[in-house]
Specification:
Length: 344
C-alpha cells in the first residue's frame, strides 16, 4: 500500500459507514469491490453511499449498500445534506476521492472517523488520512479504493473479481425487449460502440469509430452506436448512414435502462468511459482505447478491472503517439479475433 500503511482499525460489528464518491459513473463503479469487502467483513454494518445523482443509479439494487444519498454541488443544499447525514449518526466516513465539498460535509456532520487519501489540500479535514499518491499510478484505481477499506481490519478479505451492477429480472426482461425493438426482431447479440466521452481522457477519433461501425455492418454484424442526450448529433449521423445492421441507441434511456440494454451485448467498444466500465460490471467483453501518456489516464489506472482475457486494450505502438495512430484496420482485425473466440 502507498506510504507503507500499517494501520488496522478494528471496528464494532454494527458500525455505520458513509462512503463517498460524488463524481462520474466509472469512478463510482470502481468503488464497488471495496464496498463488497467492507460488507463481507462487517455483515451487520450499515453502509450508506453519498454520490452524484446521475451516477447513483449504478448502485441501485446493490446488496451491499443499505442507503444511497444523492448529492450534487450545484443542485443540492450543502447544509441540508449535512443535517441529514448528522441525523444518521455515522461512525466512519471513507472518502474515495478528496475534494472540499464532501470533506466539509463529513466534518460538519461530526463523523468521528474520517478516512481518505492524503493527497490534496482538502485532506486536512480528515482525521485519518492515508498516504496515497494516485498520480504515480502504482496500481489500479479500484485497488487504491480497496486500500482505504482494508485498513478497517479487512486486510485478509479477498476482493471480488470485478465491479458489479445488479439488474433486477424485470430490468433484464426490458433490456431484451429494447434490443428486439432496435434490431427489428433479429435474435442476435450485437456489438455496442460508444464513441463519446466526457473529455477526462484522450480519445480515439469519432470518425474512426464510425468507420469501424460501418465495416462491421458491411460484414453483416449488428452494431448499435450509443450516446446520451448531449450526443444526439452523433446518433443522427448514424441514422443518416441508413445501412443495414447499423443502428442507433435511443438517447432518452435512463441509466438503468441503458445498463439493461448493453447487458444483452456481445462486445462493448469504447474509449475510457463510464459505459465501458458499465459493460465490464455487467459481464460484457470489451475493447477499449487508452493512451500510454499521461500515465494518470492510462489503462494501468483506469482500464476495466481486473485485467482479464475478456477485456482487450489497444494502445499506440509508440509511447508518445496519440490514440489516432491506431488504425481502423487494426481495430477491425482485433475485434474479429475477439468475436471468433480468442478473448471471449
Amino acid at each position: 500500500m502507498d506510504g507503507c500503511v500499517k494501520s488496522n482499525i478494528k471496528l464494532q460489528p454494527q458500525t455505520r459507514f458513509l462512503l463517498i464518491r460524488t463524481d462520474k459513473i466509472g469512478d463510482l463503479l470502481l468503488t464497488t469491490p471495496a464496498i463488497q469487502v467492507l460488507k463481507t467483513r462487517y455483515p451487520n454494518s450499515f453502509i450508506a453511499f453519498l454520490c452524484g445523482s446521475y451516477a447513483a443509479a449504478v448502485l441501485e439494487n446493490n446488496p451491499w449498500v443499505d442507503l444511497i444519498i444523492k448529492y450534487d454541488d450545484k443542485n443540492s443544499s450543502f447544509f441540508e445534506t449535512v443535517s441529514k447525514i448528522k441525523k444518521l449518526k455515522f461512525d466512519v466516513a471513507i472518502h474515495f476521492y478528496i475534494e472540499w465539498q464532501s470533506t466539509w460535509i463529513t466534518r460538519f456532520a461530526k463523523i468521528p472517523l474520517r478516512i481518505g487519501p492524503k493527497s490534496k489540500p482538502a485532506s486536512v479535514l480528515l482525521n485519518f488520512p492515508i498516504m496515497q499518491k494516485r498520480s504515480c499510478v502504482e496500481k489500479h484505481e479500484a485497488e487504491y479504493n480497496l486500500d482505504l477499506v482494508k485498513i478497517c481490519d479487512a486486510f485478509d478479505f479477498i476482493p471480488p473479481s470485478t465491479p458489479q451492477i445488479f439488474l433486477q429480472e424485470t430490468e433484464i426482461t426490458r433490456g431484451k425487449q429494447m434490443l428486439t425493438e432496435i434490431l427489428k426482431n433479429q435474435n442476435k447479440k450485437p456489438i455496442f460502440i460508444h464513441p463519446g466521452s466526457k473529455g477526462s481522457a484522450q480519445n480515439w477519433p469519432l470518425t474512426s469509430f464510425l468507420e469501424l461501425a460501418k465495416k462491421f455492418a458491411d460484414q453483416g454484424l449488428d452494431v448499435i452506436v450509443t450516446g446520451g442526450k448531449d450526443e444526439e448529433e452523433l446518433l443522427k449521423t448514424v441514422e443518416k448512414c441508413n445501412l443495414p445492421h447499423l443502428y442507433r441507441c435511443p438517447s432518452n434511456l435512463t441509466l438503468r435502462e441503458f445498463a439493461a440494454l448493453i447487458h444483452e451485448g456481445e462486445l462493448m467498444i469504447s474509449n475510457s468511459t463510464g459505459p465501458l466500465h458499465m459493460a465490464s460490471a455487467l459481464g460484457v467483453s470489451t475493447l477499449s482505447f487508452y493512451p500510454h501518456l499521461p500515465i494518470t489516464t492510462s489503462a494501468k489506472r483506469w482500464g476495466p478491472y481486473p485485467p482479464s482475457s475478456r477485456h482487450t486494450i489497444l494502445t499506440p505502438k509508440i509511447q508518445n503517439d496519440p490514440l489516432s495512430s491506431i488504425s481502423v484496420k487494426e481495430a477491425f482485425r482485433i475485434t474479429k479475433e475477439i468475436l471468433a473466440g480468442g478473448n471471449l
